[in-house]
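Sample intake sheet
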Amino acid sequence: MPRWAVMKAHGEAEAFRYAIHRELEGTESQALAEMLRIVDTFAEAFTEAGRHRQKRRVFRVSERSYVVRVENRLSNDEAHFTLAELIADTHDDALPNTVGGSPKGP
């Protein structure tokens, strides 16, 4: 079964920090649906106190990539979410060692 990662770049401009936010297993449509749930719940439209945020916008970069920008009175927050497929893994016999498809072993 294909494996996926929701990559998250968080911060502002050159200060973005990139990390794997969550690893998933399943079909592409299942992984995309989970990523969209993550995007929808990142800095939700309402604060913990129940007040509506000044502005929360979601930009689609591609079918697998979204940017969320949240603007409050005193701060701005942005995150870029991308769905990535695992295609090489040295610890999985079903996948090659490298992107070029090198076989496992010596």
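Comment: The CA atoms of residues 44 and 100 lie 40 Å apart. The chain is about 15% helix and 40% strand.
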